[in-house]
Amino acid sequence: MPTYDYVCTKCGHEMEVFQSMNDSRLKKCPKCKKLGLNRLMGGGAGLIFKGTGFYITDYKKKSGTPDSGGGEKSSSSESKTETKAKVAAK
């Protein structure tokens, strides 16, 4: 839900209110009980992510991008070939 800022023109009281976009504007000040609340124009807070965190590893890899472990795969396949040759020689 969005946060709206209000200021009372009668007493100067300022407040933030969580309201649905469908809710009507507040008119009565909770401090002085007079009809003088005006909703302030805000620049917006932007996008807020809530949760444990967002990391680059959370996203699906693009097809065609090389893995960072490419060198490890080739060395492990070479060692397997060497091991098979040693076993066959015995």
What would you note in describing this structure?
The structure is a single chain. The chain is rod-shaped, with a radius of gyration of 32 Å. It has a domain at 1-41: Rubrerythrin, domain 2, CATH 2.20.28.10. Mean pLDDT is 74; it is low at 70-75. The longest helix has 20 residues, at 70-89. It contains one helix and three strands, in the order E-E-E-H. The chain has one helix spanning 70-89; strands at 3-8, 14-18, 37-39. Helices cover 22% and strands 16% of the residues.
CATH level-1 class of the domain at 1-41 = Mainly Beta
Helix proportion range: 10-25%
Q: Which stretches are poorly predicted, pLDDT < 50 over at least 5 residues?
A: 70-75
CATH-level-2 architecture of the domain at 1-41: Single Sheet
C-alpha termini separation: 73 Å
Which sequence of SSEs, written as H and E, runs from N to C?
EEEH
Instruction: Compute the number of strand runs.
Output: 3
Largest sheet: 3 strands, antiparallel
Count of alpha/pi helices: 1
CATH topology of the domain at 1-41, anyone? Rubrerythrin, domain 2
Record the strand order, biggest sheet.
Answer: 2-1-3
**SS-based class:** alpha+beta
Quaternary state of the chains? single chain
Beta-strand proportion: 15-25%
Average pLDDT over all residues: 74
Our Rg estimate from Cα atoms comes to 32 Å
Give the overall silhouette. rod-shaped
